[in-house]
Amino acid sequence: MDEKTSTRKSPEFCSLRYGLALIMHFSNFTMITQRVSLSIAIIAMVNSTQQPGLFNNSTERPLAFTFNHSNRTIKEFNTAEVSVYEWSPETQGIIFSSINYGIILTLIPSGYLAGIFGAKQMLGAGLLVSSLLTLFTPLTADFGVILVIVIRTVQGMAQGMAWTGQFTIWAKWAPPLERSKLTSIAGSGAAFGSFIILCVGGLISQALGWPFIFYIFGSIGCVCCFLWFTVIYDDPLHHPCISIREKEHIVSSLAQQSSSPRRSVPIKSMVRCLPLWAIFTGFFSHFWLCTIIITYLPTYISSVLRVNIRDSGVLSSLPFIAAASCTILGGQLADFLLSRNLLRLITVRKLFSSLGLLLPSLCAVALPFVASSYTTTIILLILIPGTSNLCDSGFIINTLDVAPRYASFLMGISRGFGLIAGIISSTATGFLISQDSVSGWRNVFFLAAAVNMFGLVFYLTFGQAEIQHWAKERTLTRL
Q1: Residues 47, 85 contacting (CB under 8 angstroms)
Q2: How large is the angle between the packed helices 274-304 and 16-45, nearest 10 degrees?
Q3: Where are the alpha helices (DSSP H) in 118-144?
Q4: How far is the C-alpha of 472 from the C-alpha of 259, rounded, in Å?
Q5: Torsion angle (degrees, nearest 10) of CA 163, 166, 168, 174
Q6: Lowest mean pLDDT segment, chosen from 280-294, 323-337, 451-465
Q7: Mean pLDDT, to the nearest integer, of 4-14?
Q8: H helix and E strand count, the chain
Q9: In angstroms, rounded to a whole number, what is the distance separating the alpha carbons of residues 236 and 233?
Q10: d(CA 69, CA 73)
Q11: What's 467's DSSP letter?
Q12: How far apart are the two ends of the chain, measured CA to CA in Å?
């Protein structure tokens, strides 16, 4: 009751912690635009006349239609004197997945180190390196696909540093009854960034040439770095601009959670903890389908709906405005249910996890059967990312419930499982659609739905929301 009273008396949307959520929203916006830039640019980067594998060899009309469109598009790119490369769908799949390899290499160590030394410097450095590498991507493409893969891998390492440490900051800034709202505001930057880059990327490519997609969003990232280092602090106690009232509210609401520095991590206890494995499985399933949508949506719309790069980018952006909206609204609803004691914490986590895994699976399974309907296809593609982001109020922030002391470290492991799924799904998608377009896309979506269902069943069975015994201060164990 004391905590609830404190929550009502404290400032909310005008408070500093919500300002930090907006800064993180902008940072996530920047990182996802730098990551997705290649997904929309690659339509222009790759010579369309060299991609018959994207379509069924027995269907001649789509090839002729695409060839007519690609002639006009390629002439525009040649006018802008930009390069065009002959990368097969398999090669594109490897390029897309390479950034995930880099993220995996840094997720776990960066999460652990951010918990010890502070997240501000580590996250800011990762964002800066990612922005600079984005600026140099067009130059590296001229030197060959190997260098592009290397650059994307290093960029992934930088983004891995930036993604994970955010939960270290929220472990010290977010009161328990505001966690869903704050993390959803910050996390929605990724969906909004996907919307913007896919919406304007095609327009930029046609007007200025595809290299300017990387130049513009790389420059925005550099500006964001300045904002990050100026405004973000590791905890409210050291922020020079926070009010005494807000500082006391945050500190008192987190008083029951350990915030002392840790020298060791209870690895053995974590490995034996089924609730953690439920979270990891949820991440694996969620990222499998999300990676396919983020990476291959422009290609899917371009090849299946037969539209040019400009329209493909605009159509590809629509699902992500729905995703950003659902992320914020889901967080608001989750915290409303908790603050009013309408549902238990574990019930809220499992409810939103179920909605975020089941609904997009149903939409994905239906996609191959409505490919002939332009409107229905677009509606389903909008619903997949939107409903999928309801997981942000489910298992995605569940580590803050079960082990707040190790939230950043465990988030690194969780995202590691998700990125492994992203690597497998990106590579598998490139392979499947290179064999046959129609059956390939059908198999891609069916497989993604099956993975989602496995993750949902496992999480519903073993997921918990209580702080685990090994995560409490009195049970500090050695490696």
Answers
A1: yes
A2: 40
A3: 119-141
A4: 10
A5: -150
A6: 323-337
A7: 47
A8: 18, 0
A9: 7
A10: 6
A11: P
A12: 38
